[in-house]
Amino acid sequence: MSASSPPSSLGTALVTGASSGIGKVYAQKLARRGYDLIIVARNRSRLDELATAIATETGRTVEVLPADLGKAEDVAAVAARLADDPAITLLVNNAGSGTEGPIIGADPAKIDAMLDLNVRALTRLAVAAVNAFSARGRGTLVNIASVVAIVPEQFFGAYSATKAYVLALTQSLGAELKDSPVRLQAVMPGLTRTEFFDRAGLDINALPAHMVMAPEDLVEAALRGLEAGEVYTIPSLPDASGWDALTAARMVLAPDLSHARPAARYGLAAAAE
To answer: Where would you find the membrane-spanning parts of this chain (predicted)?
Structure first.
């Protein structure tokens, strides 16, 4: 779907997982901020409906790109679009899934499918984006992680591990792109009222209501964080100094994480080499 407006000076935002939930809200809000869009998801009919609504409301150009990011060939097609389309200035790496229970007793095939989407597809698209943006001298990568990356003990292991990977990937890219014009943001939502829970076989209504955020509030906070220059955004966190303290605590460990000999507390430091 496209409108008759000229190309946006902000460029085009490519949003994955855009047919519902967080991705859908990102698409709506980015168009209202002046971006043209490429919206990606499996469900073509939902994408078409969303594209028509956004183009009608905002006058921005909205292109539908149906893709199943659990399939390598579809991931490759979206990655190629990121690499080849100079109009794309923003990737919202949002598509993801969760399992319906603990690792113990889980279906390994479901875990594999989650890894394909949450880790392999996200990484392929992130790599395509940062390489393209670096070559163009402009661009922003937003990776949707989760607060369970910080407290994996409080959620199901395999899903938590995938989101810890997303956070670690963003942190690693941040060091690599420190002096680059490419901008990065890792967004770490808490519990969010979306279809994610239905697809994972979980009842969000069984969770404390005061802990569950509306996706509209989540995305608006994330975008304001991006506009304020945040690299790591936790929309629920009252004081950003809490994240800074966690980062500082990790860095305190850094000088002692790799030595030629085991620590003295193991009683091996004086052993012959």
So the answer is: none
* CA distances (Å), origin 101, targets 108, 117, 141, 203: 12, 17, 30, 12
pTM of the shown model: 0.91
Burial of 53 (0-12, 13-18, 19+ CB in 10 A): middle
Q: Is residue 249 part of a domain?
A: no
Instruction: Select from 102, 98, 103, 108 the least CA-distant residue to 144.
Output: 98
Catalytic residue from among 159, 165, 232, 266: 159
Distance CA 259, CA 203 (A): 47
Do the domain assignments include residue 251?
no
CATH number at residue 50: 3.40.50.720
The answer to whether residue 272 is domain-embedded is no
Neighbours of 87 (CB within 10 A): 14
Q: Can 159 be counted among the known catalytic residues?
A: yes
Q: How many domains does the chain have?
A: 1
Whole-number pLDDT of residue 269: 58
Q: What is the pLDDT of residue 190?
A: 86
The Cα–Cα gap between 118 and 97 comes to 7
Structure confidence by residue, pLDDT tens digits, 133-178: 999 999 999 999 999 999 998 887 799 999 999 999 999 999 999 9
